[in-house]
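If you are new to this repository, start here. Below is one unmodified record pulled from the training split, so you can see the exact layout before writing a loader.
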Amino acid sequence: MNRPVILWDWNGTLLDDVQFAIQVRNAVFPRFGLPAIDTLETYHEQFTFPVSVYYERAGVTKENFEAVANAWMDAYVAGCHAVPLFADAVDALDVFAQSGFSQVVLSASKLDTLRRQLETADILDRFDDVLGLDHIYATDKTDIARDWLSRNGINSENCVLLGDTVHDALVADALQIGCVLIARGHMSRKRLTETGYPVCDDLRQATRLVIGRKTNSI
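And here is the target side for that same chain:
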């Protein structure tokens, strides 16, 4: 593949689901004797990958991790069809398509859930591929990305990852590809800035930054 490639994170990058994720947490965690949270700042302080570490910060134990994770996912899936894309998401997809980019979703979500969400949002056909995990525990997505890049003969200099977490930056580091982070998702601007990658306010700004550079110098 000779075209430049955008690897899109999903949750918090294209999908505006941060407040919904907090709502689900506050509905589920108290059922396990865990406290609700009151602010986005608290969520940003605790959220991380893998999700098991985030849950540990929230008071989940090894003994009840699977039960909490499954309860959270059941509640999330039940309501996620109503969660919107960010207002500038479709425009960003259009701009990259018009500029000749191949676009792929790279998510730590379970693949079948991810594909259903993309179908619901009516954007599944905009992507050349959809990469997700085979479980619900939101672990590392580096290996599935590395395998896809290798199978498709992608030059790392032609690939940029757009995401909203430190994990996205770590994936980009591991793959030696470019990365631009958007500071309106699941992690704070401060944490994103510490990665050393460019941090944008929204996808319009990120799109302007990427177009014309198309290399891992980003």
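Two things worth knowing about this chain: Residues 18-82 form one domain. Residues 65-79 form the longest helix (15 residues).
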